[in-house]
Each structure stands twice: as C-alpha cells, then as structure tokens.
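Practice problem 4.
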C-alpha cells in the first residue's frame, strides 16, 4: 500500500503506520488533514521543498513530540497542529510569514516557541490554550497580533511587544493568569478590547507615547499598582475606569495634562479621577487646570478620591454657587464626612448672614422618613423579618440600594415576575450599587437595563435566579466570590436573544 498519496506536489494523505516520518522532498504542500488523527505519530521532519502546511494537517496527533520545520516554509494554515498535546517545542523558520488561526492552539505541553525574524502576522488563537508556555519573544518583524493569539496561556510570565507591532487585537493575552511582565514598545498604536483580561499577575504596565487608541473595554486587571503613560494618555480615557484596585499610582508627563488644545473635558476628567487615586497630586497639575476644577466641581466632588477632594477644598477650587447642589447630591449618597467638610468649607467663605442660612440648610439634610422611602421603593416584608425590594419608583439613573430601612436589612431584590424598573426607566439606569446585606436576586430583576455596563456582586449573595440580568447587553460582572455559588442559576449571567451569550464575569474581585 502506498504510504504517501501525492498529487501535483500536494501530499493529500499519509496512510503509513510509522511513528517517525520524513516527508518526501517532492512535496510542495501538505494538504488538509493529511496526517490528522494519527495517534501513533511521534516525529515528523518537513523538508525545505514544503511551502505550505494546510488546514488541520496534523490535528489531534496526540503523541506527536517532535516537529522539524525547514527553511522554505512560508505559511502555516489554521489548526495545522491543533491539539497536539505531546508537542513540547517548535522552531518557526525565518521563511514563515504568517501563522494562521489556531495553528498551535491546544498544544498543552508546548513549553518553548522560537519565532524567527521574517514573521509578520500571528493570527487569531495561533497559540491559544498553550498552557505550559512560559515566555515568548515576538520578532521585530511582526506587524500585528490578532485576537486571542495567546489567550489562556496560563503559565506565560513575560512578553515583549516589539516596535514593529502596530496593533494588539481583542483578547490577545486574555486569561494569561501568570503574566507578570509585559513590555509594550514605542511604535504600538492600538490595543483592542479585553486584550489583558484576567491577567491577575500584572502589577504595572507602561503605555508608550505612540499609543493612539485603547478600546473602552480594554479592562485592565484590578491587581495593577502602577500605570505609566510615556505620552498623552490614549483615548478614550474611560478605558481605564475599572482597572484600578484599592490604590493605583498613575504617572503621566506634565504636558499631557496642561495642553487644553488637545484634551477634551471628559478626557481630562477621566485622567484626574485616576490620578486622584494615587499617592500624590502634582501642584502644577492643579495650578494649570484650576478653571477645569471649578467648571466641573459638581461632577468631581462625588467621585474624586479623598486626597483630590481635600486638595480642592484646600485650594478653594469649589465655587460657592455650586455647594448647595453638591451637598444635596452627597447627602443622597450618604457621604456624610464630605458633607460636613463641605459645610465647613462654605462657612469659611460666607458672610455671617450667609452662614446662618447655611446652618439652617444643614438641618434639612436629615434621613428620609419611612413614608418618603416607600415612595421610592416597593417593599415586602419576608418571613425572616427582612425586606425584599420589588420595584424602584425614583428618578435617578445612578442608584445606591440601601442595606437597611429603619433598621431592617434588605436581603432580596425582584419578585421574579417583572423587573425592578419600569419599561422607560430601565433603559436609563447607568449604575447600581448593591448592599452587602443582599442574599438573593430574582429572575428578570435587571431586565432591559441596556445602559448598565458593570455591577459588583457582594459575597453574601447566595441565590441568583436565571436571566436576572436579561437583555443587559453591555454588562460585566465583578463578583466578590471566588467561584460561582451553588445557588446561582446556570443562566444567571446569560443574556436572552438569538445569541444567548454569557456576559463577562470576573471572580474574586477586590476592587471598588
């Protein structure tokens, strides 16, 4: 029986039973599935005459330990070596220009990959799920790293992105849990969504001045301690709003926050919010942006860090005309310490007559009555004496759900029949903060909250019914729990519709 079936230089099928194979030098291309599922194959040598390795050519060769690729090979097609679980090392010769999608995906034992100069493209999922791979040196000839190229390389610890790479696509290094060091060289211009999702080992990251665009869903890990911008921080600034943990230091050059001809208001605001969470605030930044602070005091006071808020008070950057509205908003959010500080601030600026008016206003900041609360929340007392909130009737789009009302804990949300918000209000809900006392979220509770992008689920939540977040198309879940509790439905994070996709979930979240 003929072992090699070759037509017009294309090896279409290998029918032999040898464990070690050398491909004939008359072959120019290894065709689709030519060696696929050869369970006994342990070694293959591919001669210089071969220019292409076709789709799934060596797929599921689970005993394949050694592959020799020769100079002359130009393309490795999708899934060419997919799920070769015994392969430990691969050397890509300089003649190879592109490694196509999934080419080495699922090679769980692959520890060492040598990529040669000349390679230009690493396509989608090329080395995804190579769980033993610990480091990778990307050649200076590579121009683009496609989506999920190194996703789920769980042992990967270090990556150097050379200046030749212009774009890092979505999920490129997502779920690389051990990644501790990533160097992004000057020359990289764009970073896609979730490029570093769940890279929990990262403590610092530096963005070169060449960066022009970062996806608003880049979702940097909350474990970061330091973010450094070597140039103007990339747009959109809200790309970094959820990456911060309890403390993060942000560095940026002086010019990047002084150039008002370049920076838009919302862009600078996002930058200052991040900066405010750091250890120091530059006096030069404040001095050169005092007009911005005064113009946006109403928005900044509630969200700024304690340090930034104190600095605004110390430098008289909060206009007196805005204090009434700021005090009212902070009272609604029960930011009592800031309310007291702001009242003291206003008293130092007001005349005696104005102080009397301000003193009277202080007593208006009292807790709402039970009757007033019932006009906002529909409550039902449960058998254990706690409350369930089944509806919200207020007007706010950013909602803080109380942990208790009149000393009685709030433990449940939703009645499982209809959503917490009416059909008009639900689409305007932008932010919801859940209380630590919460234990259960019923089905359809947050139905059609299409503007809701993130929610932090307290550790005490033991039950979430199916489709509790139905049609929340943009939401990401940040769970204090380390893994899914047994009381959460299998479809708790699933969105309805034709795709029925599962939303992004971050476990063991320690951020804010």
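Answer key:
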């Amino acid at each position: 029986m003929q072992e090699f079936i070759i037509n017009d230089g294309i090896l279409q099928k290998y029918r032999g039973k040898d464990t070690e194979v050398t491909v004939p030098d008359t072959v120019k291309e290894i065709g689709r599935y030519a060696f696929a599922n050869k369970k006994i194959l342990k070694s293959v040598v591919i001669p210089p005459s071969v220019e292409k390795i076709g789709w799934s050519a060596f797929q599921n060769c689970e005993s394949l330990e050694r592959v020799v690729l020769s100079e002359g090979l130009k393309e490795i097609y999708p899934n060419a070596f997919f799920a070769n679980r015994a392969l430990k090392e691969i050397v890509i010769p300089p003649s190879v220009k592109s490694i196509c999608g999934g080419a080495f995906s699922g090679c769980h034992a692959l520890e060492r990959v040598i990529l040669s100069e000349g390679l230009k493209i690493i396509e989608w999922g090329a080395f995804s799920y190579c769980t033993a791979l610990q480091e990778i040196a990307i050649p200076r000839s590579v121009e683009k790293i496609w989506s999920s190229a190194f996703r789920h390389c769980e042992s990967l610890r270090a990556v150097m992105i050379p200046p030749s790479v212009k774009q890092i696509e979505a999920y490129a290094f997502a779920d690389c849990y051990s990644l501790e060091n990533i160097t992004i060289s000057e020359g990289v211009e764009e970073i896609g969504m979730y490029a570093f999702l769940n890279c929990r080992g990262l403590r610092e990251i530096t963005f070169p001045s060449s960066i022009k665009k970062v996806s608003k869903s880049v979702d940097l890990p909350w474990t970061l301690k330091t973010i450094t911008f070597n140039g103007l921080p990339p747009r959109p600034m809200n790309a970094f709003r959820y990456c911060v943990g309890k403390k993060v230091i942000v560095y940026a050059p002086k010019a990047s926050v002084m150039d008002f001809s370049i920076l838009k208001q919302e862009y600078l605001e996002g930058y200052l919010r991040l900066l405010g969470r750091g250890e120091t605030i530059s006096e030069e930044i404040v001095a050169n942006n005092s007009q911005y602070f005064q113009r946006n005091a109403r928005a900044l006071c509630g969200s700024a860090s304690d340090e930034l808020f104190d600095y605004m008070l110390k430098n008289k950057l909060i206009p007196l005309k805005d204090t009434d509205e700021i005090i009212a908003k902070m009272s609604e959010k029960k930011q009592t310490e800031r309310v007291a500080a702001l009242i003291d601030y206003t008293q130092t600026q007001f005349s005696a007559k104005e102080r009397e008016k301000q003193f009277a206003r202080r007593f208006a900041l009292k807790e709402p009555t039970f009757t007033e609360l019932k006009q906002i929340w529909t409550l039902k007392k449960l058998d254990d004496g706690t409350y369930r909130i089944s509806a919200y009737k207020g007007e706010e789009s950013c909602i803080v759900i109380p942990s208790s009302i009149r000393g009685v804990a709030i433990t449940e949300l939703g009645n499982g029949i209809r959503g917490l918000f009416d059909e008009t209000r639900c689409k305007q809900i932008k932010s919801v903060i859940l209380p630590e006392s919460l234990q259960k979220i019923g089905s359809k509770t947050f139905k059609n909250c299409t503007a809701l992008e993130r929610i932090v689920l307290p550790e005490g939540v033991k039950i979430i019914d199916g489709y509790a977040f139905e049609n929340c198309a943009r939401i990401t879940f940040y769970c204090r729990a380390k893994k899914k509790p047994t009381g959460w439905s299998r479809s708790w994070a699933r969105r309805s519709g034709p795709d029925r996709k599962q939303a992004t979930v971050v476990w063991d979240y320690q951020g804010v």
